[in-house]
What we know:
2 copies of one chain form a homodimer. The first copy, chain A, is an alpha/beta fold. The first copy, chain A, has 2 domains: 1-120 and 286-338, Isopropylmalate Dehydrogenase, CATH 3.40.718; 129-275, Isopropylmalate Dehydrogenase (3-Layer(aba) Sandwich). In chain A, helix 4 (81-90) runs parallel beside helix 5 (103-114) and helix 6 crosses helix 7 (188-199). Chain A contains 13 helices and 11 strands. The mean pLDDT of chain A is 93. Chain A has an 11-stranded mixed β-sheet with strand order 3-2-1-4-11-10-5-6-9-7-8, sandwiched between helices. In chain A, strand 1, helix 1 (15-28) and strand 2 form a beta-alpha-beta unit. The radius of gyration of chain A is 21 Å and the shape is globular. The two termini of chain A are 33 Å apart. At the A-B interface, helix 8, helix 9 and helix 10 of A face helix 8, helix 9 and helix 10 of B.
Amino acid sequence: MRIILDAMGSDSYPGPDVAGAVLAAREYGDEIVLVGDQAKIRAELAQHDVHGLPLSVKHASQIVEMGESPAQAIKARPDSSVVVGMDLVRSGEAEAFVSAGNTGAVLAGALLRLGRIKGIKRPGLTTPFPLPTGPIVLLDIGANVDCRPEYLYQFALMGSAYAERAMGKDRPRVAILSNGEEAGKGNALVKEAFHLLAESPLNFVGNVEPKELFAGQADVVVMDGFTGNILVKSAEAVSKMLIGMIGKEIKSGPVTTLGGLLAKPAFGRVRAQLDPFNVGGAVLLGVKGVVIIGHGRSTGVAIKNAIRQARLAVSGGLVPAIETGLAAFNPVTEAEES
Amino acid sequence: MRIILDAMGSDSYPGPDVAGAVLAAREYGDEIVLVGDQAKIRAELAQHDVHGLPLSVKHASQIVEMGESPAQAIKARPDSSVVVGMDLVRSGEAEAFVSAGNTGAVLAGALLRLGRIKGIKRPGLTTPFPLPTGPIVLLDIGANVDCRPEYLYQFALMGSAYAERAMGKDRPRVAILSNGEEAGKGNALVKEAFHLLAESPLNFVGNVEPKELFAGQADVVVMDGFTGNILVKSAEAVSKMLIGMIGKEIKSGPVTTLGGLLAKPAFGRVRAQLDPFNVGGAVLLGVKGVVIIGHGRSTGVAIKNAIRQARLAVSGGLVPAIETGLAAFNPVTEAEES
Lengths: 338, 338
């Protein structure tokens, strides 16, 4: 297996990116191609013991900057690390593309250079979401802010394939996020998607409210990308707010301060359980290749975990599984607008 | 001022309801009319020292049960505490209706018996949402799962009137919840509502992401009722999950257990700061009267706080403020479907 790593992806590129590639090559043995500024990558590699590791470098002279219109940037920079890397996947020279770069740019690169799997209306952005009961799959988390019921069905199909093929879940429980558990609950989108999923061969368990979602009562939860984005960002904001409040109250007196010091390891373990870096990055489902998008603030270990995620998706046969699933049941008619 | 309290509202009615009425009558001196089963209310009142308190009882022989279709229940039970209480507000004998009963039933009662303020397309369900920086106003949190941009504008107008008149905020900062702060971000609904709000006389500060919302960077945040319901329930679920994880990790060893015991008062203070019972109940904005819906699990103090919320809304002139605001700027055309 050959995996492409965008060496110019993370906020502090190429340090964490190269470090992650070295860790992954050592641990997994897969071939990793570092794409980006050759001189900078080689200088960074010189900091590591890479003897005998299956690492190679592919030069790309350009970088997609933050703040550019993603589609324009991809078109204007044919020698950027994103475009060069995607083209290696497109041509079959590699199976997966991993980047901690700008999400919009990687999305645009994947759509424009790899293209959608035949029959997929809208690729979905997914996150393996860490919970105390183990990670679950949420999608869409922001690629499609306005959705049709068929998109939610396809998200469910793709998310289910991902949970099965890349996370090892058997017949993943698929649910729709809604404002009530009962079948008739939800907005118009949810109600229509419910019917499509009820008729599908997926292991559809109905609607879940946030309470059930955060209790891990489904393996895959689908929603429109607006709601998903708000959900994921709210979970992060509430956690941060609560930890901040607890920290402040603990520091407000000597006894609670002492208690906080003694209890500190417990807080550390909670943080570790919820750390998205341990799970990997976001996954773009529905394009012709495995695409993982790590966080800009990724460390070397986070990059390594994103590469691990890519190799599990490739070895599990994710893309063929989505193609097969679509062929078995696809509610999207040919006539429908693309 | 005369305030109606549905004595048959809370899950353990009429105990907490009557206790709350007694506390409120004693603290505020407003007249409170307890509506419901006369015998049960009087038996409960006998448990309290009510000498000289402005409390009265209005008999209502029926109760709206959970699980009934709300609109049908309201129509089928003209002598229920909800209908009898709403009718006292409708006839002008009282200014506000407070209940810890089923939200759907109170909504239906308010819509069918009080009716909408002229020009309001959809009343909005609001919660004063507790944050470390103080409560903010979120709406809609579930009454309208499918919204048009005009509804969001009217939510903003009503929420702003509520923050100003009932919470004492001067020129409340109004925002739209979105997946990005920039003006062009959001789904189709948010983008259109943005333009309406940008042209309005409200103190519109643009879009906020969950990060900004939970940091208290707006006083009023509007959203469709589906998203709002998911947001509020997610915040609750994440808090519960995190507290549970911390508790479990603290109890996993003797040192952290001791630390947890010492730090316990800090956790209690955090819980108190986020306790919705301290703020009051949900508020239905856009009907011809002040309507407060408390939590079914309300205690006497929670009921008292809901009554406090009602009296602040009445004395602040909330309903006239919404009428005046609508007259000044209403983007909803007459031609539009009701």
